[in-house]
User: Fold Aminotransferase from Novipirellula herctigrandis.
Amino acid sequence: MHPWIADRTTTFDSSGIRKVFDLAAKLKDPINLSIGQPDFDVPDEVKEAAIEAIRNGKNSYSPTQGIGPLREALREEVQAKYPHEDRDVFVSSGTSGGLMLAMLSMINPGDEVIYMDPFFVMYPALLKMCGGVAVPVDSYPDFRLDVEKIKAAITPRTKMILVNSPANPTGVTATASELKAVAQLAAEKNIAVLSDEIYSRFFYDGTFASPASYNDQTIVIDGFSKSHAMTGWRVGYVHGPSEIIRTMLKIQQYSFVCSPQPAQWGALRAMEVSLDGHIEAYRRKRDFVYSALADCYEIAKPGGAFYMFPKAPTDSGEAFVEQAISRGLLIIPGNIFSARDSHFRISFAASDEQLKQGVDILRSLAGV
Assistant:
């Protein structure tokens, strides 16, 4: 290793998802069910708002906390949902930026953070960057948010419970009663709740719920990347207790500085754009893939996001993914998201034709 490289960088590897993306670039016309972003484009109204901002000279730094109109619109939306006495909001450089700021603001070396396994790949890496200790809690086989398992994992070093619903990679959504139980447990134990809600608009069954409804100290991460296909625009937002928000802003000032200003004007317009057609389309895609695979794979039916996490019909999820790739189907091995190597992730954020081709290959690999 080069002598100038910091030790902290050796505690985690590059994202395994990126490795699959690199492989995809080498294949000719793969059936790609690995992508973690919508297959539709940014709405035209949003594009035009950003273009207008650029043409009108809104190309400089914005205030660190975000442009005033966007922040005020977000504040009104958040206040309507969570009328807490002390809740502030700011615009982050994507939800990934928001997660990093939250960890750097709240986690000291040795602090423990509980989250469910399977998990979004960024969680353990971010914790290691700031010296935190990851405490993954096994949620197999149904991937539910189990308050008793979380309670059993709490120690005197527990600083935070990290919740992700709808979840990546499983698509499973926590119920209001599950979230309430975890939120109340955290309040009782004086533990922070960080809720990653980037897939909150991709919710297919019932009504979306947040732990912020049951614990006024909850810190929420959300954004426009997935909902409006703006993954490259880097506009997220965070809301929570004002002192936590001020600390996150202090770190943003010396790191990301701000979210790109033209993209923020696009996000302001995005708040007025209906997503109903896209959500209905993704509900239909979810139903198609689930019904096509449920008879030959063990799958927890996803209630949100655009992922499924089936159990591989072989001993190794990674080996199964290699078989699928040899057939031209790109999916993600489950061990990227988990301590177990038993499952794989499908993204149904793809065209209907790609989904049909992918389902046919998966049924064939299952021997159907």
Remarks:
- The chain has two domains: 7-41+275-365, 44-270.
- The first helix runs from residue 16 to 24.
- The chain has a mean pLDDT of 95.
- The two ends are 48 Å apart (CA to CA).
